[in-house]
Structure formats: C-alpha cells, structure tokens
Amino acid sequence: MSSDTPISWWRTEFGEPAIEAIAAAIRSERVGQGPLTEAFERDFAERLGMKYAVTVTSGSAALYIALIARGIGHGDEVIVPDRTWVASAHAVCMTGAKVVLADVKPHMPIIEEEVIESLITPRTKAIMPVHLNGRASNMDRILEIAGRHKLWVVEDTCQALFSGDSAGKFLGTRSGAGCFSLGTTKLISSGQGGVVVTDDPEYHKCLKLVKNHGVVDQFTDRWNQFGFNFKFTDFQAAMVHQQLKTIESRLLHLREVYAAYRDSVEKLSWINLIPFGSSNELPLYVDAVTPHRERLISYLREKSIQVRPHPPSLHTTSYLNSGGAFANSLRFNREGLYLPAGPTQPIQNIERVIDALRKFEP
Ligand SMILES: *Cc1c(COP(=O)(O)O)cnc(C)c1O
Q: Which residues line ligand 1 (CB under 6 A)?
C-alpha cells in the first residue's frame, strides 16, 4: 500500500460470506420480514442474555418505538445527555415529548448522574442514558434515581453492542429497553437497521405492534395501537446474522486497534485518548481530545488521513436547548475527534496514523 492511499475514519467490510448470505436469502424468496429476521432476533437476544429482541429499520427507529411503546408523547419530558449523536434527542422529539439535556462527566462524555435529580419535573417520564462509544453510564445510580421518582429508563446502546459494565454485564440489558443500531458505522451492520431488547413480554408485544402500524393479524386489520412501518427485511437479517455468528473476530480487531493507539498516543503530550471506565467496555471508536483539533485535522488531511471531529453538543442546536450549563460537554465539543478505526481497519493504517501523529508539531 502506498503511503498516500486514503485512510478513512471508519472501515468495515463484509466480504463473500455476507454476499452469500444475502444471495441465499433472495434465492429462497426471503426478502421481506420473515423467518430469517426471527432467527436473527432470537440469537441477538440470547447472546445478550435477554428474552426478546425486535428489529427495526434503524437505531433511531429503535429509540423511537421504545418510547412510543411506553406511551411517551406530548407533554412529557425525557432526560438525555448533552453529548450523544443527535438521533437520541430526535427520537424523543418525534414522539412530541420535550428533550431535557444533562451535562456529562468532566473526563468522559457520558451522563453525569448527579445532575439528573435537579432536572426532574412533574412532567419527566424517562431517562435515556447513552453509553457513548461503549462507555457504561452509571446504571446502578440511574436505576436507583428512576425507581425513587417512578421514571422509566431506556438505554441508547447504539454505540455499545457487546460492551459491558464493570461487573461484566452487557450494556442495554438492565433497563426497560436497550436500543441498538445496525448502521454502517456500528459494530455489525445491515446497512441500516436497529434492534430493541427487553425482558418484558407485554412491552415486547407492544414493540412489535408499533413497528408494524399496530397490525395484530394482517387478515383482520383492526387498530388499537398507533404505529408505523419500521419492519426489517430477511436479506438484511441474513447479512447481519452472519456477522453476529463471527463476532469474535470483530471484537478482537477493535481491541487490537485500540491497543495500538493507546501505547503510542500515551507518549504524546498534546493529545489524550478519552478514558474508559473498565476493561469490559468495548472501544468501538478511538476517540481523543486535543486543543489543537482543527490544525491536526488539516495536517492529517494532507497525508490523506481522515479524522472526524466529534459532533456538536446538543444544546448548541437552538431547538434542543432546554437551558442549563454544559461546561464539561463543551470541552468535548471543542476538542473531541475520532481517529481512524473500525472492525476491518488494517493495522498498517493505524501504524501510518501513529507515525503521522508523532511528527505533528503542536
Ligand atoms: C448511530 C446512533 C444512533 C442512531 O442509529 P441509526 O441506526 O443511525 O439510526 C443513535 N444514538 C447513537 C448514540 C448512535 O451512535
């Protein structure tokens, strides 16, 4: 590979096995949602130690149906951390409820659980911790606060599939619902897609209704539950199930990528990898902070290395700003970036990035 072959911030490939799986699904006339989707849902739930999994068209849709199936809507408030991908907040907006933003921790972009109680009002219905980049929000404390105030908890685990808390329990498995994304920049992907997991049989039934316009039986259409079409497809299920069955190699590679950066970046004074809480957490991305972010991005761009700045803090978007102070969030807003990574990013690429980082003059 030449020294100026472009390196993208994210790399994931699916290869022949995925192509074969999709082709086989189509050959057997499995296109719409059917037995392959069900098999994927069963395996997904089982691997997380959960009773039920419901596939939908995206992680955003997973968050949305999770809220709708809980009856959250106009007049309600949902507490969301200020550092997340905007989909967490937009899912709340789509229900008609109001987003109430909470600041994050000083050293990690996950919800500061100690500010949650100050944000609770008589209209608060739910708390949505986001386990950003596999980092575990403090679920013990969040569930305790929620229990005391009779609030529901929904976990945005879109960036945290197979990431665990310090006790080794998978994220997304301790609250009312765990919501996962199967988008292209996630651990496993069907192009677009999402999954909600739960242990509650009644809630599971309701999720299935909401993802299909409330249809109980397509031969006797009657509507008792509002919903929409968020159905998955069998050829997507075939593609993503194949990745689930061989997940170990993806997990291993992400850990190798992270370790390669950690040892080298630790020696540089002007950039820091954002810390993790425990070794059970899976770094899906390699995220760092540096006060020299903009210069670094253009320096690396000249070397054909793509680095992605972190998305803006949600409160900087006018229609999401619910008031309050976000000092910790703003630091990640200014300094956060993703270094090239991904389940199939070649290690030689990481070495080239590290070499470039070493030569950067801040
Ligand atoms: C990707 C992501 C989503 C949305 O998932 P899509 O599949 O892209 O709709 C929601 N929240 C977080 C934290 C994400 O990273």
A: 58-60, 84-85, 87-88, 130, 156, 158-159, 181, 183, 194
Atom of ligand 1 nearest to the CA of 61: 9
CA pair distance 291, 75, nearest whole angstrom = 40
What global pTM score does this model have? 0.97
Half-sphere exposure of 120 (CA within 13 A, CB side): 18
pLDDT tens digits for range 219-262? 887 888 999 999 999 999 999 999 999 999 999 999 999 999 99
CA gap 269, 256 in Å, rounded = 22
Which atom of ligand 1 lies closest to the CA of 159? 15
pLDDT tens readout for residues 7-49: 999 999 998 999 999 999 999 988 899 999 999 999 999 999 9
- Count of residues in the chain: 362
| Residue minimizing CA distance to atom 5 of ligand 1 | 59
| Ligand 1 centre distance from Cα of residue 85 (Å) | 6
Neighbours of 93 (CB within 10 A): 15
